[in-house]
Amino acid sequence: MPSLGGLLKKRRTKDSQTLSKELPQANSDRSDHSSNPDANPDKAEGQGASMQSAEPSQGSSQHHAHSSNNAASINNLINTPANAGSSTQSPAHTSNATPSTQPQPQSQPRQERTTRGKYSQGDFMLQRTLGTGSFGRVHLVQSKHNHRFYAMKVLKKAQVVKMKQIEHTNDERRMLNRVRHPFLVTLWGTWQDSRNLYMVMDFVEGGELFSLLRKSQRFPNPVAKFYAAEVTLALEYLHHHQIIYRDLKPENLLLDRHGHLKITDFGFAKDVPDITWTLCGTPDYLAPEVVSSKGYNKSVDWWSLGILIFEMLCGFTPFWDSGSPVKIYENILRGRVKYPPYLHDDAVDLLSQLITADLTKRLGNLHGGPQDVKNHAWFAEVTWDRLERKDIDAPYIPPIRGGQGDASQYDKYPEETEHYGVEGEDAYGHLFPDF
Ligand SMILES: Nc1ncnc2c1ncn2[C@@H]1O[C@H](COP(=O)(O)OP(=O)(O)OP(=O)(O)O)[C@@H](O)[C@H]1O
Ligand SMILES: [Mg+2]
Hints:
By secondary structure, the protein is α+β, with helices and mostly antiparallel strands. 28% of the residues lie in helices and 12% in strands.
Protein backbone atom coordinates (compact mmCIF):
# COMPACT_ATOMS: atom_id res chain seq x y z
CA MET A 1 0.00 0.00 0.00
CA PRO A 2 1.62 3.24 -1.07
CA SER A 3 2.02 5.90 1.55
CA LEU A 4 -0.11 9.01 1.62
CA GLY A 5 2.98 11.10 0.95
CA GLY A 6 3.90 9.04 -2.09
CA LEU A 7 0.44 9.27 -3.56
CA LEU A 8 0.18 12.96 -3.00
CA LYS A 9 3.39 13.51 -4.92
CA LYS A 10 1.97 11.78 -7.94
CA ARG A 11 0.49 14.01 -10.60
CA ARG A 12 -3.15 13.28 -11.14
CA THR A 13 -4.45 12.40 -14.54
CA LYS A 14 -7.67 13.10 -16.26
CA ASP A 15 -10.77 11.00 -16.22
CA SER A 16 -12.73 11.25 -19.37
CA GLN A 17 -15.53 9.26 -20.78
CA THR A 18 -18.35 10.69 -22.71
CA LEU A 19 -21.62 10.05 -21.00
CA SER A 20 -24.07 10.41 -23.77
CA LYS A 21 -27.60 9.24 -24.18
CA GLU A 22 -26.25 5.69 -24.59
CA LEU A 23 -25.37 5.71 -20.90
CA PRO A 24 -28.50 6.84 -19.13
CA GLN A 25 -27.74 4.93 -15.90
CA ALA A 26 -24.77 7.05 -15.14
CA ASN A 27 -24.59 6.36 -11.45
CA SER A 28 -24.52 2.63 -11.77
CA ASP A 29 -21.81 2.92 -14.42
CA ARG A 30 -19.50 4.95 -12.33
CA SER A 31 -16.87 2.27 -12.05
CA ASP A 32 -16.32 2.52 -15.78
CA HIS A 33 -15.26 6.10 -15.50
CA SER A 34 -12.03 5.59 -13.74
CA SER A 35 -9.02 6.72 -15.66
CA ASN A 36 -6.82 4.06 -17.10
CA PRO A 37 -3.21 5.11 -16.77
CA ASP A 38 -1.93 2.06 -18.55
CA ALA A 39 -3.83 2.90 -21.67
CA ASN A 40 -1.33 5.57 -22.47
CA PRO A 41 2.29 4.51 -22.71
CA ASP A 42 3.42 8.11 -22.31
CA LYS A 43 1.52 8.52 -19.16
CA ALA A 44 2.54 5.25 -17.61
CA GLU A 45 6.14 6.17 -18.20
CA GLY A 46 5.78 9.74 -17.03
CA GLN A 47 3.82 8.89 -13.93
CA GLY A 48 6.25 6.20 -12.96
CA ALA A 49 9.07 8.63 -13.25
CA SER A 50 7.42 11.23 -11.12
CA MET A 51 6.56 8.67 -8.48
CA GLN A 52 10.12 7.46 -8.25
CA SER A 53 11.71 10.86 -8.10
CA ALA A 54 9.54 11.78 -5.17
CA GLU A 55 11.29 15.10 -4.75
CA PRO A 56 12.01 17.15 -7.87
CA SER A 57 15.68 17.07 -8.75
CA GLN A 58 16.36 20.62 -7.67
CA GLY A 59 14.07 20.33 -4.68
CA SER A 60 16.55 20.66 -1.87
CA SER A 61 17.78 24.06 -2.93
CA GLN A 62 14.30 25.37 -3.63
CA HIS A 63 12.74 28.20 -1.73
CA HIS A 64 9.45 27.34 -0.19
CA ALA A 65 6.39 29.46 -0.56
CA HIS A 66 6.56 30.35 3.08
CA SER A 67 10.31 30.85 3.21
CA SER A 68 11.38 34.13 4.68
CA ASN A 69 12.77 35.42 1.37
CA ASN A 70 9.42 35.27 -0.23
CA ALA A 71 7.32 35.65 2.86
CA ALA A 72 3.81 36.27 1.76
CA SER A 73 1.99 39.03 3.47
CA ILE A 74 -1.27 40.79 3.01
CA ASN A 75 0.81 43.57 1.49
CA ASN A 76 1.62 41.27 -1.36
CA LEU A 77 -2.03 41.21 -2.18
CA ILE A 78 -2.85 44.84 -1.97
CA ASN A 79 -0.03 47.15 -2.67
CA THR A 80 3.36 46.70 -4.10
CA PRO A 81 3.77 47.43 -7.77
CA ALA A 82 5.43 44.59 -9.57
CA ASN A 83 7.77 44.59 -12.49
CA ALA A 84 6.11 41.49 -13.73
CA GLY A 85 4.98 41.39 -17.29
CA SER A 86 4.84 39.18 -20.25
CA SER A 87 6.81 39.60 -23.37
CA THR A 88 5.07 37.71 -26.06
CA GLN A 89 6.54 37.18 -29.43
CA SER A 90 5.56 34.91 -32.22
CA PRO A 91 8.04 32.12 -32.93
CA ALA A 92 8.16 33.25 -36.56
CA HIS A 93 9.50 36.69 -35.70
CA THR A 94 13.20 37.08 -36.08
CA SER A 95 14.94 38.52 -33.08
CA ASN A 96 15.76 41.60 -35.17
CA ALA A 97 12.13 42.29 -35.76
CA THR A 98 11.33 42.62 -32.08
CA PRO A 99 14.61 42.78 -30.26
CA SER A 100 13.42 43.57 -26.77
CA THR A 101 12.90 40.69 -24.39
CA GLN A 102 12.17 43.02 -21.52
CA PRO A 103 8.84 42.83 -19.77
CA GLN A 104 6.24 45.20 -21.15
CA PRO A 105 5.04 48.09 -19.02
CA GLN A 106 1.96 47.09 -17.09
CA SER A 107 -0.24 49.86 -18.32
CA GLN A 108 0.31 48.94 -21.94
CA PRO A 109 -2.83 47.74 -23.67
CA ARG A 110 -2.80 44.07 -24.52
CA GLN A 111 -1.14 43.43 -27.82
CA GLU A 112 -2.92 41.41 -30.40
CA ARG A 113 -0.89 38.48 -31.51
CA THR A 114 0.62 39.05 -34.89
CA THR A 115 0.99 35.42 -35.82
CA ARG A 116 -1.16 32.47 -35.05
CA GLY A 117 0.02 30.46 -37.88
CA LYS A 118 1.08 27.16 -39.14
CA TYR A 119 4.54 26.04 -38.25
CA SER A 120 6.42 22.83 -38.75
CA GLN A 121 8.93 20.79 -36.84
CA GLY A 122 11.63 22.40 -38.94
CA ASP A 123 10.96 25.77 -37.28
CA PHE A 124 12.04 24.51 -33.86
CA MET A 125 14.91 22.79 -32.16
CA LEU A 126 13.66 20.12 -29.80
CA GLN A 127 14.88 20.22 -26.20
CA ARG A 128 13.94 18.32 -23.08
CA THR A 129 10.51 17.18 -21.93
CA LEU A 130 8.81 19.59 -19.52
CA GLY A 131 5.87 17.44 -18.59
CA THR A 132 3.66 14.57 -19.52
CA GLY A 133 -0.04 14.22 -18.96
CA SER A 134 -2.88 11.86 -19.70
CA PHE A 135 -2.79 12.48 -23.41
CA GLY A 136 0.25 14.56 -24.21
CA ARG A 137 3.92 15.29 -23.78
CA VAL A 138 5.19 18.83 -23.62
CA HIS A 139 8.70 19.70 -24.80
CA LEU A 140 10.81 22.77 -24.44
CA VAL A 141 11.68 23.94 -27.95
CA GLN A 142 13.68 26.83 -29.35
CA SER A 143 12.57 28.79 -32.40
CA LYS A 144 15.15 28.74 -35.17
CA HIS A 145 13.86 32.17 -36.21
CA ASN A 146 13.93 34.31 -33.09
CA HIS A 147 15.87 31.88 -30.84
CA ARG A 148 13.25 32.18 -28.11
CA PHE A 149 11.98 29.25 -26.14
CA TYR A 150 8.49 27.82 -26.36
CA ALA A 151 6.56 24.85 -25.03
CA MET A 152 5.41 22.35 -27.65
CA LYS A 153 2.62 19.95 -26.72
CA VAL A 154 2.60 16.75 -28.76
CA LEU A 155 -0.41 14.48 -28.99
CA LYS A 156 -0.29 11.14 -30.75
CA LYS A 157 -3.21 11.00 -33.15
CA ALA A 158 -3.71 7.26 -32.77
CA GLN A 159 -3.81 7.67 -28.99
CA VAL A 160 -6.26 10.55 -29.18
CA VAL A 161 -8.55 8.45 -31.36
CA LYS A 162 -8.22 5.38 -29.14
CA MET A 163 -8.99 7.40 -26.02
CA LYS A 164 -11.99 9.02 -27.78
CA GLN A 165 -10.54 12.48 -27.39
CA ILE A 166 -10.98 13.76 -30.96
CA GLU A 167 -13.56 16.37 -30.08
CA HIS A 168 -11.76 17.43 -26.91
CA THR A 169 -8.51 17.83 -28.83
CA ASN A 170 -10.10 19.95 -31.54
CA ASP A 171 -11.80 21.96 -28.79
CA GLU A 172 -8.47 22.41 -26.99
CA ARG A 173 -7.01 24.03 -30.06
CA ARG A 174 -10.09 26.14 -30.79
CA MET A 175 -10.51 27.35 -27.20
CA LEU A 176 -6.84 28.18 -26.74
CA ASN A 177 -6.90 30.04 -30.00
CA ARG A 178 -9.76 32.22 -28.78
CA VAL A 179 -8.43 33.28 -25.42
CA ARG A 180 -6.12 36.08 -24.48
CA HIS A 181 -5.63 36.82 -20.81
CA PRO A 182 -2.66 37.51 -18.51
CA PHE A 183 -3.31 34.32 -16.53
CA LEU A 184 -3.89 32.01 -19.50
CA VAL A 185 -1.13 30.46 -21.58
CA THR A 186 -0.71 31.82 -25.10
CA LEU A 187 -0.99 29.51 -28.10
CA TRP A 188 1.14 30.56 -31.06
CA GLY A 189 0.43 27.95 -33.64
CA THR A 190 -0.29 24.34 -34.47
CA TRP A 191 0.47 21.75 -37.12
CA GLN A 192 0.38 18.02 -37.66
CA ASP A 193 2.48 15.36 -39.33
CA SER A 194 1.43 11.84 -40.18
CA ARG A 195 1.48 10.69 -36.55
CA ASN A 196 1.20 13.63 -34.18
CA LEU A 197 -0.54 16.92 -33.45
CA TYR A 198 1.59 19.83 -32.27
CA MET A 199 0.71 22.99 -30.35
CA VAL A 200 3.29 25.67 -29.66
CA MET A 201 2.69 27.84 -26.61
CA ASP A 202 4.67 30.24 -24.50
CA PHE A 203 7.16 28.46 -22.30
CA VAL A 204 6.13 29.29 -18.73
CA GLU A 205 9.39 29.05 -16.86
CA GLY A 206 8.48 28.84 -13.18
CA GLY A 207 7.20 25.27 -13.05
CA GLU A 208 3.94 23.82 -11.83
CA LEU A 209 2.11 25.14 -8.79
CA PHE A 210 1.79 21.44 -8.00
CA SER A 211 5.55 21.11 -7.37
CA LEU A 212 5.62 24.23 -5.22
CA LEU A 213 2.63 23.09 -3.19
CA ARG A 214 4.01 19.60 -2.56
CA LYS A 215 7.34 21.06 -1.46
CA SER A 216 5.60 23.57 0.79
CA GLN A 217 3.05 20.99 1.99
CA ARG A 218 0.49 23.75 2.35
CA PHE A 219 0.35 27.46 1.64
CA PRO A 220 -0.20 30.18 4.21
CA ASN A 221 -3.56 31.92 3.87
CA PRO A 222 -2.26 34.96 1.87
CA VAL A 223 -0.33 32.78 -0.57
CA ALA A 224 -3.35 30.58 -1.30
CA LYS A 225 -5.42 33.74 -1.62
CA PHE A 226 -3.05 35.23 -4.18
CA TYR A 227 -3.18 32.18 -6.46
CA ALA A 228 -6.91 31.68 -5.94
CA ALA A 229 -7.54 35.31 -6.86
CA GLU A 230 -5.60 34.98 -10.11
CA VAL A 231 -7.51 31.80 -10.96
CA THR A 232 -10.79 33.58 -10.18
CA LEU A 233 -9.96 36.31 -12.70
CA ALA A 234 -9.09 33.72 -15.33
CA LEU A 235 -12.34 31.82 -14.72
CA GLU A 236 -14.32 35.05 -14.87
CA TYR A 237 -12.75 35.78 -18.26
CA LEU A 238 -13.34 32.27 -19.62
CA HIS A 239 -16.94 32.14 -18.44
CA HIS A 240 -17.59 35.57 -19.87
CA HIS A 241 -16.53 34.06 -23.20
CA GLN A 242 -18.81 31.05 -22.63
CA ILE A 243 -15.89 28.71 -22.06
CA ILE A 244 -15.80 26.25 -19.19
CA TYR A 245 -12.33 25.02 -18.28
CA ARG A 246 -13.11 21.74 -16.46
CA ASP A 247 -9.61 20.74 -15.43
CA LEU A 248 -8.56 23.07 -12.67
CA LYS A 249 -5.77 21.53 -10.53
CA PRO A 250 -2.28 22.58 -9.41
CA GLU A 251 -0.70 20.42 -12.15
CA ASN A 252 -2.23 22.72 -14.78
CA LEU A 253 -1.29 25.97 -13.05
CA LEU A 254 2.16 27.19 -14.04
CA LEU A 255 4.17 30.03 -12.58
CA ASP A 256 5.75 32.61 -14.83
CA ARG A 257 9.20 33.94 -13.97
CA HIS A 258 7.68 36.65 -11.79
CA GLY A 259 5.52 34.18 -9.89
CA HIS A 260 2.18 34.92 -11.53
CA LEU A 261 -0.04 32.08 -12.68
CA LYS A 262 -0.63 30.86 -16.20
CA ILE A 263 -3.30 28.24 -16.71
CA THR A 264 -2.29 25.65 -19.27
CA ASP A 265 -3.97 22.50 -20.62
CA PHE A 266 -7.19 23.38 -22.38
CA GLY A 267 -7.75 19.68 -23.10
CA PHE A 268 -11.22 19.81 -21.55
CA ALA A 269 -12.11 23.41 -22.19
CA LYS A 270 -15.38 23.75 -24.00
CA ASP A 271 -17.63 26.32 -25.49
CA VAL A 272 -20.82 25.97 -23.47
CA PRO A 273 -23.52 28.58 -23.73
CA ASP A 274 -25.76 26.55 -21.43
CA ILE A 275 -25.34 22.95 -20.32
CA THR A 276 -23.32 19.85 -21.19
CA TRP A 277 -23.15 16.25 -20.07
CA THR A 278 -19.66 14.91 -20.58
CA LEU A 279 -17.94 13.22 -17.67
CA CYS A 280 -14.44 14.59 -17.75
CA GLY A 281 -11.91 16.16 -15.45
CA THR A 282 -9.59 14.81 -12.78
CA PRO A 283 -11.30 12.68 -10.11
CA ASP A 284 -10.42 14.69 -6.99
CA TYR A 285 -11.70 17.86 -8.61
CA LEU A 286 -15.00 16.67 -10.13
CA ALA A 287 -18.21 18.36 -9.03
CA PRO A 288 -21.10 16.11 -7.91
CA GLU A 289 -23.24 17.15 -10.86
CA VAL A 290 -20.49 15.81 -13.17
CA VAL A 291 -20.06 12.58 -11.23
CA SER A 292 -23.78 11.89 -11.24
CA SER A 293 -23.96 12.90 -14.91
CA LYS A 294 -26.55 15.56 -14.57
CA GLY A 295 -26.23 18.31 -17.10
CA TYR A 296 -23.83 20.93 -15.86
CA ASN A 297 -22.37 24.28 -16.74
CA LYS A 298 -19.84 26.82 -15.50
CA SER A 299 -20.77 25.88 -11.96
CA VAL A 300 -18.26 23.01 -12.13
CA ASP A 301 -15.31 25.39 -12.34
CA TRP A 302 -16.41 27.14 -9.14
CA TRP A 303 -16.61 23.81 -7.38
CA SER A 304 -13.07 23.04 -8.60
CA LEU A 305 -11.90 26.44 -7.38
CA GLY A 306 -13.14 25.38 -3.95
CA ILE A 307 -11.19 22.12 -4.18
CA LEU A 308 -8.10 24.02 -5.31
CA ILE A 309 -8.31 26.50 -2.42
CA PHE A 310 -8.85 23.64 0.00
CA GLU A 311 -5.84 21.78 -1.40
CA MET A 312 -3.62 24.87 -1.25
CA LEU A 313 -4.58 25.53 2.38
CA CYS A 314 -4.55 21.92 3.60
CA GLY A 315 -2.12 20.08 1.32
CA PHE A 316 -4.68 17.46 0.31
CA THR A 317 -8.06 17.44 -1.40
CA PRO A 318 -11.27 17.04 0.61
CA PHE A 319 -12.57 13.88 -1.08
CA TRP A 320 -9.23 12.21 -1.61
CA ASP A 321 -9.01 8.44 -1.27
CA SER A 322 -6.00 6.22 -1.78
CA GLY A 323 -8.13 3.62 -3.54
CA SER A 324 -9.77 4.04 -6.89
CA PRO A 325 -11.43 7.08 -8.43
CA VAL A 326 -14.73 5.36 -7.66
CA LYS A 327 -14.07 5.83 -3.95
CA ILE A 328 -13.34 9.48 -4.58
CA TYR A 329 -16.61 9.79 -6.50
CA GLU A 330 -18.51 8.20 -3.63
CA ASN A 331 -16.98 10.72 -1.26
CA ILE A 332 -17.90 13.57 -3.60
CA LEU A 333 -21.50 12.41 -3.77
CA ARG A 334 -21.61 11.99 0.00
CA GLY A 335 -20.42 15.58 0.12
CA ARG A 336 -19.01 15.59 3.64
CA VAL A 337 -16.06 17.98 3.99
CA LYS A 338 -13.96 18.08 7.14
CA TYR A 339 -12.44 21.51 7.54
CA PRO A 340 -9.21 21.37 9.58
CA PRO A 341 -9.24 23.71 12.60
CA TYR A 342 -6.26 25.74 11.32
CA LEU A 343 -8.35 27.15 8.45
CA HIS A 344 -9.40 30.78 8.76
CA ASP A 345 -13.13 31.27 9.34
CA ASP A 346 -13.47 33.29 6.14
CA ALA A 347 -11.79 30.51 4.18
CA VAL A 348 -14.19 27.92 5.61
CA ASP A 349 -17.13 30.15 4.79
CA LEU A 350 -15.99 30.59 1.18
CA LEU A 351 -15.13 26.91 0.76
CA SER A 352 -18.47 25.77 2.09
CA GLN A 353 -20.19 28.02 -0.45
CA LEU A 354 -18.07 26.70 -3.32
CA ILE A 355 -17.94 23.02 -2.36
CA THR A 356 -21.68 22.64 -2.16
CA ALA A 357 -23.71 20.26 -4.29
CA ASP A 358 -26.63 22.68 -4.20
CA LEU A 359 -26.29 24.65 -7.42
CA THR A 360 -28.70 27.27 -6.14
CA LYS A 361 -26.23 28.02 -3.36
CA ARG A 362 -22.87 27.64 -5.07
CA LEU A 363 -21.00 30.93 -5.19
CA GLY A 364 -20.04 31.95 -8.71
CA ASN A 365 -23.14 30.21 -10.04
CA LEU A 366 -25.62 32.65 -8.51
CA HIS A 367 -27.16 35.79 -9.86
CA GLY A 368 -24.08 37.88 -9.03
CA GLY A 369 -21.81 35.51 -10.99
CA PRO A 370 -18.04 35.68 -10.39
CA GLN A 371 -18.50 38.99 -8.59
CA ASP A 372 -19.99 37.10 -5.65
CA VAL A 373 -16.74 35.17 -5.32
CA LYS A 374 -14.63 38.32 -5.66
CA ASN A 375 -16.74 40.09 -3.05
CA HIS A 376 -16.38 37.33 -0.47
CA ALA A 377 -14.74 38.32 2.81
CA TRP A 378 -11.79 35.94 2.26
CA PHE A 379 -10.78 38.04 -0.73
CA ALA A 380 -11.37 41.36 1.06
CA GLU A 381 -7.78 42.62 0.67
CA VAL A 382 -7.53 41.89 -3.03
CA THR A 383 -7.49 44.86 -5.36
CA TRP A 384 -8.75 43.04 -8.42
CA ASP A 385 -7.89 45.55 -11.11
CA ARG A 386 -4.29 45.80 -9.96
CA LEU A 387 -4.04 42.05 -9.73
CA GLU A 388 -5.25 41.69 -13.31
CA ARG A 389 -2.51 44.09 -14.42
CA LYS A 390 0.00 42.00 -12.42
CA ASP A 391 0.58 45.15 -10.48
CA ILE A 392 0.95 43.17 -7.27
CA ASP A 393 4.04 41.25 -6.22
CA ALA A 394 3.68 37.49 -6.26
CA PRO A 395 4.38 35.72 -2.96
CA TYR A 396 7.03 33.47 -4.46
CA ILE A 397 9.51 34.20 -7.21
CA PRO A 398 10.73 31.02 -8.91
CA PRO A 399 14.54 30.79 -8.66
CA ILE A 400 15.25 30.90 -12.38
CA ARG A 401 18.92 31.67 -12.69
CA GLY A 402 19.78 30.37 -16.13
CA GLY A 403 18.05 33.02 -18.25
CA GLN A 404 15.85 32.19 -21.22
CA GLY A 405 15.18 28.50 -21.67
CA ASP A 406 16.03 27.56 -18.08
CA ALA A 407 13.77 24.57 -17.40
CA SER A 408 15.21 23.77 -13.98
CA GLN A 409 11.82 24.32 -12.32
CA TYR A 410 10.37 21.30 -14.13
CA ASP A 411 10.82 17.67 -13.15
CA LYS A 412 12.84 15.45 -15.46
CA TYR A 413 11.11 12.77 -17.53
CA PRO A 414 12.38 9.92 -19.68
CA GLU A 415 12.63 11.39 -23.17
CA GLU A 416 10.50 10.43 -26.14
CA THR A 417 12.39 8.29 -28.59
CA GLU A 418 10.01 8.70 -31.51
CA HIS A 419 11.20 10.99 -34.27
CA TYR A 420 8.84 13.90 -34.92
CA GLY A 421 8.01 15.27 -38.36
CA VAL A 422 7.64 11.90 -40.07
CA GLU A 423 5.69 11.91 -43.31
CA GLY A 424 3.82 8.83 -44.44
CA GLU A 425 0.45 7.20 -44.26
CA ASP A 426 -1.93 9.21 -42.16
CA ALA A 427 -5.17 7.48 -41.21
CA TYR A 428 -6.40 10.18 -38.85
CA GLY A 429 -5.34 13.56 -40.26
CA HIS A 430 -8.82 14.36 -41.55
CA LEU A 431 -10.17 14.16 -38.00
CA PHE A 432 -8.15 17.20 -36.96
CA PRO A 433 -8.90 19.77 -39.66
CA ASP A 434 -7.77 22.80 -37.64
CA PHE A 435 -4.25 21.59 -36.94
N1 LIG B 1 3.23 26.29 -21.68
C1 LIG B 1 3.90 25.45 -20.90
N2 LIG B 1 5.13 25.77 -20.42
C2 LIG B 1 5.80 24.89 -19.64
N3 LIG B 1 5.34 23.67 -19.30
C3 LIG B 1 4.14 23.30 -19.74
C4 LIG B 1 3.36 24.16 -20.57
N4 LIG B 1 2.19 23.53 -20.83
C5 LIG B 1 2.25 22.33 -20.21
N5 LIG B 1 3.42 22.18 -19.55
C6 LIG B 1 3.83 21.02 -18.74
O1 LIG B 1 3.38 19.82 -19.34
C7 LIG B 1 2.47 19.12 -18.47
C8 LIG B 1 1.45 18.39 -19.28
O2 LIG B 1 0.76 19.30 -20.13
P1 LIG B 1 -0.82 19.24 -20.24
O3 LIG B 1 -1.39 19.40 -18.87
O4 LIG B 1 -1.27 20.22 -21.26
O5 LIG B 1 -1.03 17.75 -20.76
P2 LIG B 1 -2.25 16.76 -20.58
O6 LIG B 1 -1.87 15.47 -21.15
O7 LIG B 1 -3.46 17.38 -21.16
O8 LIG B 1 -2.33 16.73 -19.00
P3 LIG B 1 -3.24 15.97 -17.90
O9 LIG B 1 -4.07 15.01 -18.59
O10 LIG B 1 -2.31 15.32 -16.96
O11 LIG B 1 -4.00 17.06 -17.21
C9 LIG B 1 1.92 20.23 -17.55
O12 LIG B 1 1.43 19.71 -16.36
C10 LIG B 1 3.18 21.08 -17.36
O13 LIG B 1 4.05 20.50 -16.44
MG1 LIG C 1 -2.61 18.71 -17.54
